[in-house]
Specification:
The chain is mainly beta. The chain has one domain: Lipocalin (Beta Barrel). Helices cover about 10% and strands about 50% of the residues. It has 2 helices and 16 strands. It has a 16-stranded antiparallel beta barrel with strand order 1-2-3-4-5-6-7-8-9-10-11-12-13-14-15-16. Strand 4 and strand 5 form a beta hairpin. It is globular, with a radius of gyration of 21 Å. The termini are far apart.
């Protein structure tokens, strides 16, 4: 009887001391870009400041790189580079293949997007606000045009598990997300909590959902070994999947995408 009473007290104490998830508990993986993925943990552990994507000299297919007259802080054979902050979050992406693109990200104190800026043949500047519902483990992100801060033009909904890992993301023009959304991404994990599978589907109107692309993550002795990614051909993907390979640091060192071979070169933080 005493054992039963003691077990009841322990369970009661645990229920009283547990707290709902806070915004700071939520775990977001870095965005899987069109080319490469690196985990936040690997970027932090190796103090990575910049990643340069370089066309391998022996690649069957080359990229046409834009020539710039001004001094630029990258190698002349770089077609894209990423700059990270000390928390492993990307703060700038620049692309120099075919046309110039520049993306910049600002974060708040817990790592949520505060501002996003894009520059290419068009300009985009967004600011964000958030609403978190701990009971349903849902986070809502509201998108505003920088010049129209009183009017929401897009919404993103994130769903998390009880450990704070992201399970699903939806983006759309309405905050209902029942039938009006642009895309939906689901995330699956292995028993160790490591990312295992990511799939993105599009709402194309005429049919309920259509797959945009997916990624499978493979591990060797609990370390990320490779990622195989496939984007649907109608959305710019090739007939062959992309393959990403990782070194002992957990950083991507090479990408094979169709007939292109891309090398990843890293610069550590000073």
């Amino acid at each position: 009887m005493r054992k039963l009473f003691f077990a009841f007290v322990v369970l009661l104490f645990a229920s009283c001391t547990s707290r709902p998830l806070q915004l700071s508990d939520l775990e977001f993986e870095p965005v899987y870009d069109y080319w490469v993925y690196n985990s936040k943990e690997a970027l932090i552990a190796n103090q990575i400041d910049t990643m340069f994507l370089i066309i391998d000299p022996n690649s069957e297919e080359k990229l046409n790189l834009i020539s710039w007259n001004n001094d630029v802080p990258y190698r002349t054979d770089t077609f894209e580079y990423y700059v990270y902050n000390e928390n492993g979050r990307v703060v700038e992406i620049q692309c120099f293949s075919a046309f110039y693109e520049n993306d910049k990200f600002q974060y708040d104190s817990i790592g949520l997007w505060k501002e996003y800026r894009h520059f290419s043949d068009y300009k985009d500047r967004q600011i964000f606000s958030y609403r978190f519902v701990p009971e349903s483990l849902l986070l809502y992100r509201y998108h505003y045009d920088y010049n129209k801060p009183d009017s929401v033009f897009a919404y993103t909904q994130f769903k998390f598990d009880k450990q704070g890992k992201i399970l699903e993301k939806k983006s759309g023009r309405s905050d209902s997300f029942e039938s009006d959304y642009y895309d939906k991404t689901i995330y699956k994990y292995n028993d160790l909590g490591q990312l295992l599978y990511v799939q993105t589907t599009m709402d194309v109107g005429s049919i309920e959902e259509e797959e945009y692309g997916h990624q499978n993550y493979f591990y060797t002795e609990d370390k990320l070994d490779s990622v195989i990614s496939q984007i649907a051909q109608k959305y710019g993907g090739g007939a062959k999947p992309s393959k990403l390979y990782y070194d002992e640091r957990g950083l991507c060192y090479q990408v094979i995408k169709g007939n292109r071979t891309i090398n990843c070169i890293y610069k550590q933080r000073k």
